[in-house]
Design goal:
alpha/beta, Rossmann fold, 2 domains, 6-stranded parallel beta sheet, 9 strands, 38% helix, binds zinc ion
Length: 341
């Protein structure tokens, strides 16, 4: 764009944080894959549904139990095991090994998509994830010294690094203690038989869903990153749909979808959420509105879509160390402090 056409420069965007509405981000497996394209810090791969048994290394355990797992969805395999009733020890061993594999994953030391994402949102914003892996929490922990204004994290299917005190509705790190009552956090349960996928039975998950429902109602922008809305999550998508409201009641809001699937497929999957042309599809997080207007996405939304002004982009640098990335964010954080946000 010609520089003379710009109404809001990147410096003005940085300087002018406002008390604005929420931006809610929903993460699926594709986001954790994008954060660790070459595996974790030790090259370990994130299991996905169609290679889950091999990646986690539980094939021989299932063989011994006489469970046919080849080419089957892991959730179905687990449900069969749970339903059989008589294989309690195998089921427990399986749960233990799945948890142990995910718990051992470590984010690479270089900045990842998750570091960019966590730093690019503020405390009014929300990241809700379906992923069990500890990557998002690890990204959060290594940036929280930069600012205490980081987004709320919600774990819609539980997380290996997350603990919860149901009595006080307080979340924290697994293994840590509740800041209110001092009691040990209860670790999240990860695996549920499909037939019992009832969120109300797990307090941590029920609380996360209640907060995401509220968060969606109060959001101006909704970003869906790497979440394929599988048929096994039909109930989950229906819950999100109810919270977001009908597309026609959401005429000013914007949805952005970050996904590698075709635009047609995505528009189909999310048709209930999208009002006419109010959506954008990006193949990469770094092309998204959040990435181009870090910590100012809602302000930028107002400038561009409501006031029809030409705005300059302000993407964080992609190459460099985590320390350099943190330094880059300093002027944004300082402007927020100065504004009392
Ligand atoms: Zn407590």
């Amino acid at each position: 764009m010609d520089g003379t056409m710009i109404d809001i420069s990147r410096e003005e965007e940085i300087r002018n944080p406002k008390d604005v509405r929420r931006h809610l981000v929903l993460l699926g497996a594709g986001a954790s894959c994008a954060a660790t394209p070459h595996g974790d810090a030790k090259g370990r791969r994130l299991p996905v549904m169609n290679n889950f048994v091999e990646t986690v290394g539980v094939g021989s355990l299932l063989d011994k139990a006489g469970i046919d797992w080849a080419k089957r969805n892991f959730e179905d395999v687990y449900s069969e095991l749970a339903a059989s009733g008589g294989q309690h020890e195998v089921k427990e061993e399986l749960e233990r090994r799945v948890e142990s594999y995910f718990s051992g994953l470590v984010l690479p030391s270089q900045p990842t998509v998750y570091d960019h994402l966590v730093l690019s949102l503020r405390k009014k914003d929300v990241i809700a994830t379906f992923n069990w892996d500890p990557f998002l929490i690890q990204a959060y922990r290594r940036s929280r010294h930069v600012t205490d204004s980081l987004p709320m994290l919600l774990f819609l299917h539980g997380c290996v690094a997350h603990g919860f005190c149901a009595k006080d509705d307080v979340s924290g790190l697994r293994g840590a203690r509740c800041s209110r009552c001092g009691g040990a956090f209860t670790p999240d349960r990860l695996l549920f038989p499909i037939s019992q996928k009832d969120y109300s039975t797990a307090p941590s998950v029920a609380s996360a869903w209640e907060k995401v429902r509220q968060g969606l109602e109060e959001s101006l922008m909704f970003t869906i990153f790497g979440y394929g809305a599988p048929t096994s999550d039909r109930d989950a998508v229906a819950l999100l749909q109810r919270a977001w409201g009908s597309a026609s009641s959401r005429q000013l809001e914007q949805i952005e979808i970050i996904d590698i699937r075709s635009e047609e497929e995505l528009a189909n999957t999310w048709s209930g959420f999208i009002h006419t042309h109010h959506y954008d599809v990006f193949r990469s997080f770094h092309d998204s509105f959040i990435a181009n207007h870090p910590r100012r996405s809602i302000e930028a939304f107002g400038n561009q879509y409501l006031d029809a002004r030409f705005i300059e982009e302000n993407p964080a640098p992609l190459n460099g160390t985590l320390d350099e990335l943190h330094s880059w964010f300093t002027p944004l954080v300082q402007a927020e402090r100065a504004a009392g946000l």
